[in-house]
Amino acid sequence: MSLASIAIEGGFRNPVFDAQSVFRALMQAMAEPGTVARDLGLTRPPAPLTPEAAAVALTSCDQDTPIWLDAPLAAEEAVRAWLAFHTGAPLTATPSEAHFAFCAEPENLIGLENFAQGSQEYPDRSATLILQVKSLSGGPELLLEGPGIETQRTLAPHPMPRHFTRQWAQNRARFPRGIDLVLVSREGMAALPRTTRIVNQEG
Amino acid sequence: MNAHAEAIAQYNFAYLDEQTKRMIRRAILKAIAIPGYQVPFASREMPMPYGWGTGGVQVTASVIGPQDVLKVIDQGADDTTNAVSIRAFFQKVAQVSVTTHTGEATIIQTRHRIPEEPLKEGQVLVYQVPIPEPLRFLEPRETETRKMHALEEYGLMHVKLYEDIAQHGHIATTFAYPVKVEGRYVMDPSPTPKFDNPKMHMSKALQLFGAGREKRIYAIPPYTHVESLDFDDHPFEVQRFEEPCALCGAHGVYLDEVVLDDRGGRMFVCSDTDHCEERRAEGHRGHLSGEEAAT
Known about the structure:
The complex is a heterodimer. By secondary structure, chain A is an alpha/beta fold. Chain A has six helices and eight strands. The termini of chain B are far apart. Chain B is α/β, with parallel strands linked by helices. In chain B, the strands form three sheets. A seven-stranded mixed sheet of chain B has the order 1-9-8-5-4-2-3. The A-B interface holds A 15-17, 19-21, 23-24, 26-28, 30-32, 59-62, 64-65, 99, 119-124, 126, 128, 147-150, 175-176, 180, 193-195 and B 12-13, 18-19, 21-23, 25-35, 37, 39-40, 62-66, 122, 146-147, 149-151, 182, 184-185, 202, 206, 219-225.
């Protein structure tokens, strides 16, 4: 297949309704951290971008939202062309300029503090990171507390960025500034908004 | 949908164009991530005037899908002008099912009440908000109130509540009673009676707030601490009513006063019409219901 047709095919079949259902899953995941929203394989993007991450991109990104890609994604011309065609979002090489950051290899992700944290006056001007993890249940268990969680919830994503619990505690300490995380795998999508606390420490 | 899709000059599903929905959806996600913080958004002109719930309508339009069941209330009632017209709007532009039953709805858009029936997990409560900034009547400058939120400087609000006590002997604020969300942001719960404030605390439903004219969206996720501001020696308390609902006999609900004649006659009835109707269907009767209680 030519690059042009790879870039054009594989978007939402019903852009309006697919975007709405993915957004509801995203909203649910963000409002109830640690829960997994399923059935998001609505797109067929070029690898290494996964269908779940691509669904989040098509739902959230447009010409107003610069996107940052990690090295494996940025290296793939088909991924860049696909995102450009389907979202119209500009790519940026500067992580602090990105509204959304997509990451295919979370274990090699640069430090979370490199992304836009928002300001004390406008904490909403912060990045949302979408991490493509292999699994949401196979890794070290994270015990979660915070808004959206009645008592406690567990999530075991794998792989995660280096020293993740320590980085997350620092992110949490910056509140109301800070980044928000969306974790996607074949199982579905989960989110860790900046308010979520990880109460067990890295073993 | 196909029959509609073939017709010409259609509105997009749920009226708003997709780029607007994405912008509002991004604001909603950030609002959920920072509970109680007012996220600015590019509020659109809607086919109804500002002040008629355009903020709530834009939030609902960005969230709603064909599977949803919508309930709209205005001061607790399903059958008043604002509720009827917004419900009809979404039936027309989104072809969604509507209901008046709190328990059946997946999205409830509300003007100034929280339903009496406890909300469930998965439900979304969308508030129409006129003035989202709780500090606005104390400090008119946006630059200053923004700084006060940034610095968590809420002394002015406590002074206002204290002045209530100094003047009236108690906190005289009865609606739009300020709350603190998750120990950080002071938030305006919209002009709901303070009777409803305790329902916001650890609610099972997601609460979204839209202010169309003021261009702000904010949110409270489920299971979030929402504390009404008060003083140790003047703790927060809700309104109490001396008599039960005159139609359904309910105690412990919020009542509206209805004037009956020009000689001081009045009755108090449930503000939540769905709650009142369901109770009457179950056989509960108040003293003015005109029927005998079911035995």
